[in-house]
Specification:
Length: 496
């Protein structure tokens, strides 16, 4: 049990004040009660208490949002990138002014440490970068061919639908808004039904700063409103972040109207620990890459949930990793000393704990963590957990847990390492910890992952593309090509 859990425990959670207009759907620049009048309760991950009643949107609400978005997108798409950038800068200024509230909403709602959520809320400033990057979106010219000259232009799709995950609520919403609007589109966001509060606030903050109808926020049940967005014939561009299972459903729904779809799906990222690496450095990469600290509590598709350690250092590595993980400060996320908070909602908490039980039943050794921290039993808290003696056939070695659970596996030859690393259906991320970077760079060519780190847990130059191989998704995010994908190319030929 951590120092913070001992010292802080849990304080009662006060529901956050609703925004002006209440917790309502946001489209057409206004707050709207759902057409069907249906609502659902949202709980705090800190103690399970009900903190808000949110509108449960359906197809009728979506049709109204699409009508508003269609009208707004026509003029917005014709405006210059510089004009769009100016408007988005004003919106970002409003988001930054609301930084404290947005961070607190994510903390109370999703159980993320307040020090991290306030930093994440400031990531809204990335909208400005995307807006100015959009000035580089341009077409091409083609040489005269028998008296005919050619050129291409890039035009916005009009309306973008974005279905967001429950982790990184503010960042995911800001990025979806930034990419769609910077490229000249309107956007209809469907945040996770479990972590919608900050997105609804961001929709309210768009009022009077951006043209009415450009930003719509529709909350509700994923299979209902999420599926409606995926299949709506007037939404030609779609992004989704979530599980492989749901991604398949989204892709099937989108196929009916032949949408341009980007999918960022699950991960089961390996960390390959080579025998020449310094022990503490490798452990730091493993713990940092697992994303225990900060907003995630292990709830990240990028996490190093499989750590593949050379047999010569396996026991020493396992012992040291358990020590480092036990020192992570887990406690009330409203305390600034807390490093790791709660899991986002009850059913996910139960799912993660179920995987811990599966690991035990299938013969893995629980080397550290695995329980509920003392003093935090009222919320959705799970200790940082590490299993040793994990066999590649076990479910905890193959299935995405999306929580603070790590599987340590042995390898003896490079062929065995590559085989284990590439044996799962996922191909999102991978990491390598090594002494000599030459073998690490060689190994990187063999690992099936769209995003890799060598001797670093996270980070990298701004603008690098992010996206997976295999079943981990379609398309990339984060780079200029991703931004440009929110436009479509038109070829024009002219007789001279």
């Amino acid at each position: 049990m951590s120092d913070v859990a001992n010292r802080v425990g849990l304080r009662p959670v006060d529901p956050p004040e609703p925004p002006d207009g209440g917790w309502e759907l946001r489209y057409g620049g206004e707050a709207h009660e759902p057409v069907n009048g249906a609502r659902y309760d949202v709980t705090s991950a800190i103690d399970g208490s009900i903190i808000a009643s949110l509108p449960n949107a359906d197809r009728d609400d979506l049709d109204a949002a699409v009508d508003a978005a269609r009208d707004a997108s026509r003029e917005w798409g014709k405006s210059s990138p510089a004009r769009r950038a100016s408007a988005l800068e004003k919106y970002v200024a409003r988001l930054l002014d609301a930084n404290e509230r947005l961070g607190l909403l994510d903390t109370i709602n999703a159980g993320m440490p307040i020090a991290a959520t306030r930093m994440e809320a400031r990531a809204a400033s990335s909208i400005t970068r995307l807006a100015h990057l959009a000035t580089n979106i341009k077409g091409s010219t083609f040489p005269d061919a028998g008296g005919v000259w050619g050129y291409t232009t890039r035009e916005p799709y009009g309306i973008v639908g974005s279905i967001l995950p429950f982790n990184h609520p503010s960042v995911a919403a800001a990025h979806a808004i930034g990419e769609a609007l910077a490229a000249g589109n309107a956007v209809i966001l469907k945040p996770s039904e479990h972590t919608s509060l900050s997105a609804l606030e961001m929709g309210r903050l768009a009022q009077d700063v951006l043209p009415a109808g450009l930003v719509s926020i529709l909350t509700g049940d994923g299979p209902v409103i999420g599926n409606a967005i995926a299949e709506h014939p007037d939404i030609p561009r779609l992004t989704f972040t979530g599980s492989i299972k749901t991604g398949r459903s989204v892709l099937r729904a989108a196929a009916e109207s032949i949408k341009h779809v980007t999918l960022e799906l699950g991960g089961k990222g390996p960390l390959a620990v080579l025998p020449d690496v310094e022990l503490d450095r490798a452990v730091d990469i493993a713990v940092g890459g697992m994303n225990f600290r900060g907003v995630q509590a292990g709830q990240s598709c990028q996490s190093t949930s499989r750590v593949l350690v050379h047999e010569s250092m396996y026991e020493r590595f396992a012992h040291r990793m358990v020590q480092v993980m036990a020192a992570i400060r887990i406690g009330d996320p409203r305390d600034y000393q807390t490093e790791m908070g709660a899991l986002a909602f009850r059913s996910h908490f139960d799912r993660v704990r179920g995987y811990i039980q599966i690991g035990l039943e299938q013969g893995a050794t629980l080397a550290g963590g695995g329980g509920i921290p003392e003093g935090l039993e009222g919320g959705y808290f799970v200790e940082p957990t590490v299993f040793t003696n994990v066999d590649r056939s076990m479910r905890i070695a193959n299935e995405e847990i999306f929580g603070p659970v790590v599987a340590l596996m042995r390898w003896s030859s490079e062929d065995e390492l590559i085989d284990i690393a590439n044996s799962v259906e996922y191909g999102l991320t991978a990491r390598i910890a090594c002494g000599n970077v030459g073998p690490g760079m060689k190994l990187a060519r063999e690992l099936e992952a769209g995003r890799m780190w060598i001797n670093v847990a996270n980070g990298g130059p701004m603008g690098m593309p992010f996206g997976g191989f295999k079943h981990s998704g379609i398309g990339k995010t984060g780079d200029f090509e991703s931004l440009q994908s929110f436009t479509r190319e038109k070829s024009i030929s002219i007789a001279l």
